[in-house]
Amino acid sequence: QVQVPARRKCSPLLDSALLPGGSELAVHEWKAVPDIWRTAAEKYADLVALVDPYHDPPSKLTYKQFE
């Protein structure tokens, strides 16, 4: 049986920050969306953050590239 990894709807950073007993991050320091991306880029620099399948070829950006 083949297992397909689940796709996230948001950043792993937000997943952990929004769950009870979540992350150690100072969520209260985020004033705007760019602050969230900056923190995500620091923690998950090389993970894929954005996939655009509608371009030919499809494009993927990591958190570091998206910041």
TrEMBL record:
Q: Which InterPro entries match?
A: Chloroplast_AMP-bd_Enzymes
* This protein's name: Uncharacterized protein
Q: Which molecular function terms from Gene Ontology are attached?
A: long-chain fatty acid [acyl-carrier-protein] ligase activity
Provide the organism lineage as a comma list: Eukaryota, Viridiplantae, Streptophyta, Embryophyta, Tracheophyta
- GO-annotated cellular components: chloroplast
Q: Which GO terms describe its biological process?
A: fatty acid elongation
